[in-house]
Amino acid sequence: MCRDFYDVVILSGGFSKRFGSDKCEFCISGKRMIERVAEVFDRPIVVSHVDRRLKMDHIFVEDKERRGPGYALKLAVPFLKREKVFVTGCDFPFIKKEVADLICSKNFDVSMPITEEPQPLLGCYKAELIRRYDVRRLMDLIEVARSVYLVGTEEIAFVDPNLLSLRNVNTVSDLGRRCRVFTKSRIIFR
């Protein structure tokens, strides 16, 4: 598989209401969550209301308005160079590149993991779809896509057996929560 066949956008400008403080700046084993995510990828595009002062090579895009993930993703469009874009948040601090590679390897307009429900903040989208539609919520991209691949946890477990990449940290207690939902992959065509 080609090494850099997708761009990466890290959304890190949310309000962290459930977390109680800026979760992107929260340290796990001495490393901020935003650093943990960014270091997995080559030159990610980081969209945030503040410069996250990352030491690794990245593109910073300022989101002054903070109108949600759809708007933040649209701000990254001028920096997209590849046909696909993997989108994640800083609150997936255990993401593995192999999981992003697996999700983006699917030849669909949209591909994303599904646990209890689809997870759009670990999704891979055709860049053309993002350029064409203005959406407030990333889930809205599923509605306009002609083809969607929902990657089941059974498939993700081949590259991440403990499913740590799927751990979404919205509260401190989420750090210890494990994904125990086993789903099969599904395809949707319109």
Automatic annotation (TrEMBL):
Q: Name one Pfam family in it.
A: NTP_transf_3
- Domain MobA-like NTP transferase spans what residues? 8-132
Q: Which domain of life is it from?
A: Archaea
Keywords recorded for this protein, A-Z: Transferase
> Which GO MF terms does the UniProt record name?
nucleotidyltransferase activity
Quote the SUPFAM superfamilies the UniProt record gives: Nucleotide-diphospho-sugar transferases
Name this protein carries in UniProt: Molybdopterin-guanine dinucleotide biosynthesis protein MobA
